[in-house]
Amino acid sequence: MNDRSKIEAMINEFYLALSSDDLSNLQLAENVVMTGVFVPEPIVGKADVIQHLRETSPFMRNIYSSRLIIENGAAVALTEFDVVNGVHIEGAYVFDVKDGQFIRLQSLFDTRSLFAKS
Fold it and tell me: Model's pTM, two decimal places?
């Protein structure tokens, strides 16, 4: 399996894990760093990143990547999902991979629709 297909498989597993709430098989480095939406300070470390994902993934439904861009050990996955109240969110996850593990995750989502008045 080449690097691109391995990274693509890792990202597909990431989305499957978020959808199933089973985060036990994520390929996270011990010192992984996560930043992004609703993360006021970087989250550092595998256990803490898994805990954050475990706390936030139940609010995401039908999460999927509509487009994946991979270059060397970096990837951007354009992402869409519905939150539990039915609001549709678009954004992206940015991944950095080294030695077959995620070393950095960043979530970038347009959250304005969460606060829009209907």
Answer: 0.89
